[in-house]
Amino acid sequence: MLTPSLSRLGVILIAVACALGIVVSLAGEAAAKLSTPDTRAAQLERDQVLKHVGRLHSGILRIDRIEAKLSTWGEFEQQRGRDYEISPFPGALRVWVVAVSGEIRPERTKNDKHYPWGIWVFDGQTLQPIFMAADRAGSWPIYFDRLRDRAVR
User: Fold this and answer.
1) Distance separating alpha carbons of residues 141 and 131, to the nearest angstrom
2) What average pLDDT is seen over the chain?
3) For position 58, what pLDDT does the model report?
4) Strands (E), 5-151
5) pTM, whole model, 2 decimals?
6) Which one of 6, 27, 65, 107 is most buried, by most CB atoms within 10 A?
7) Which neighbouring-strand residues pair with 120?
8) Do residues 101 and 139 make contact, with C-beta atoms less than 8 angstroms apart?
9) Are 93 and 1 in contact (CB under 8 A)?
């Protein structure tokens, strides 16, 4: 499996508008600042992560439901049905995955479309954003509920 060096990636903002939704992935310098993958538990508390999302993302216009799970990038990609041989992030990278239902308008898009749910992925220790997706399929991302939560409750 080939994995590109994060430090060699330039600052890239990839926005892919699909018929069913919007996906934004952040890489490059932001990815180079991510914590290195290891087996230690993330030091951030779930409440901090949830507050961070609600406070810093103006694309969330209304929150009906919000949940966060500590996972790995590889598990997240597997549950959402993506199995890329080349990924800008290592599969063992600890991440916080935050799902929000309500009214979402992705910040880095050129349209004013609103979506019933969005999902954000942050580095598990630094809260550096690495991924965002919004979709109109249903009212909640079905793969989120299948995602294993590694956080100690």
Assistant:
1) 14
2) 73
3) 73
4) 12-17, 21-27, 60-72, 94-104, 115-123, 129-135
5) 0.71
6) 27
7) 98, 132
8) yes
9) no
